[in-house]
Amino acid sequence: MTTNTENQSTSLDIVKWGIAALLIATAVIGNQFYADANVVARVAGVIIAFAIAGIIALQTSKGKQAQSFAREAHIEVRKVVWPTRQEALNTTFIVLAATAVMALILWGLDAILLRVVNLITGV
After folding, report:
1. Side-chain half-sphere CA neighbours of 7 within 13 A
2. Distance (Å, rounded) from C-alpha 90 to C-alpha 3?
3. Does the pTM exceed 0.90?
């Protein structure tokens, strides 16, 4: 009994994904086909087609999983303690200073190795 229900839902999901893909393809091809039409109307048509395709895709099992994941991610992002502006600036300056120091070290090492190679090869 369960296998039959899963098969039906899987085949229905395939149909839903096909309709969503067809809508997106129609929007893209229609946008190219009506290139001389009003830009606002074309943009509105593409946005509406993509929105309908998204709604259809959300009705599938993978779409529901993605929607659930997005909800959970939103909840987790709200729990994040964001740094203050001063903390962000301090961290940025530390990273820039460390990068500058490392660049100078690598530049010096490159100059030393270049001289060593020139001494060895006689160039």
Report:
1. 4
2. 58
3. no
